[in-house]
């Protein structure tokens, strides 16, 4: 039986920050400081969601940030991940476009969702989005033992 070497919460966080900066910075530079900041954030969030899914598909569970941190997404069942896994994982992580809604109840729910995800990552190495999409995030070197084909 293979022992999984889960990526640490720190590695996952830094990978997400790198992705967000690398992918959305050009959008903010392109649009500059426009009057409609909410529109720019929506475009940036949408582009981030799409590009992360595409990169995961093309780079076998890695994005720019995950490559930099030497971690990758794999299946918790050892099967090959497909578009649906990545879409469900990313959509449920960001709850896109919930952060654009100014409703207090939705913001409180989102905060609870993110805190619960962080606690689960700390305790079990997997967040809510990982459980829903049946994925794991592991060190890329160790992941060679996990079959995705």
Please, could you describe this protein's structure?
The protein is mainly α. 60% of the residues lie in helices and 7% in strands. Strands 1-2 form a two-stranded antiparallel sheet.
Descriptive terms for the model:
149 residues; mainly alpha; 6 helices; 60% helix; disordered C terminus
Task: Point out poorly predicted stretches.
Answer: 142-149
User: What gap, in angstroms, lies between the N and C termini?
Assistant: 18 Å
**What is the count of DSSP helices, taking H or I runs of 4+ residues?**
6
Based on CA atoms alone, the radius of gyration comes out at: 16 Å
Mean pLDDT: 77
The main sheet comes to: 2 strands, antiparallel
In short:
With about 150 residues, this protein is mainly alpha-helical.
